[in-house]
Specification:
The chain has 247 residues and is α+β, with helices and mostly antiparallel strands. Helices cover 18% and strands 25% of the residues. It contains five helices and 14 strands. The chain has helices at 17-20, 25-38, 60-73, 77-81, 158-164; strands at 45-46, 48-52, 86-91, 96-100, 129-136, 142-143, 146-148, 181-183, 190-194, 196-198, 205-208, 214-216, 219-221, 224-232. A hairpin with a 6-residue loop joins strand 10 (196-198) and strand 11 (205-208). The protein starts with 16 loop residues before the first helix and ends in a 15-residue tail after the last strand.
């Protein structure tokens, strides 16, 4: 960037107030945005995805998969039907998804209903993914693990975690194996985790579980295929409202 933008103010490793006033800050900002968008390693996520419906008109394999999800989770078929379509994701070289949460905090958006099937309604709804089931669809040559950076930590506070880290542990292109739990992709394997606690008083979806922080590590060679089923649920304030997307 310094060479391409011909920035001379950094030559002595010190930037004075006068030098700062001449820095091409707008060009620097634009340059960094271009790098972020065009270079896979600097993007939060680098993958391609599509969604497959699993309703009564879907392929028989997809319908049977949904029935198996109901059996695995011991949740009613009605709840499973209210979830999002199956997401299929393809990662190629440098593909990754930095550490993130699959769901959203209730505190900031408790005034809006859950999106369920239709995420196009965002931000007029919120993502309410009670649980995630991730399927590995092929064997991977090198990389592509799923990392849970803070799984099984004795204590965890997100704000303290961010403020105290000496390196960006959300960056799973570099710090995949710093995670407390790292799962290698293997065809036929599936992993299930819960993004929220259960509200013990009401039995509905409770607060988000911050230990569910996770992501897809860098893929160094080959191709990685996965699929995700998200089981959605309303939380207590919206429990009496029928889902608009229950099919």
């Amino acid at each position: 960037m310094i060479i391409k933008l011909n920035i001379t103010e950094f030559e002595d490793d010190v930037v004075t107030r006068e030098e700062f006033s001449t820095l091409p800050t707008a060009a620097m900002d634009e340059y960094m945005n271009v790098v972020k968008e065009r270079h896979p390693a600097h993007r939060e996520r680098f993958s391609n995805q599509a969604w497959l419906l699993q309703g009564k008109n879907a392929d028989d394999v997809l319908q049977r998969l949904r029935k198996r999800v109901s059996k695995l989770t011991r949740l009613s078929d009605r709840i499973i039907r209210g979830g999002e379509p199956l997401q299929v994701v393809k990662y190629e070289a440098n593909g990754h998804y930095n550490a993130h949460y699959d769901s959203q905090y209730q505190a900031n958006m408790s005034h809006v209903k859950c999106c369920h099937l239709d995420l196009s309604l965002l931000p007029n709804c919120r993502v309410c993914r009670y649980a995630t089931i991730l399927y590995y669809l092929n064997d991977v040559e090198d990389g592509g693990e799923t990392a849970f950076p803070v799984a099984d930590s004795p204590t965890f506070d997100k704000k303290t975690y961010i403020e105290s880290m000496s390196k960006d542990k959300f960056n799973l292109m570099q710090y995949c194996h710093d995670g407390n739990l790292v799962i290698a992709p293997k065809r036929g394997k599936a992993i299930l985790w819960y993004n929220h606690f259960v509200d013990e008083e009401t039995g509905w979806m409770g607060e988000m579980d911050e230990y569910s922080l996770h992501g897809g590590c860098g893929l160094w060679s080959g191709v990685k295929w996965i699929a995700n089923n998200w089981i959605t649920s309303a939380d207590t304030p919206w429990a009496k409202y029928k889902s608009d997307h229950d099919i």
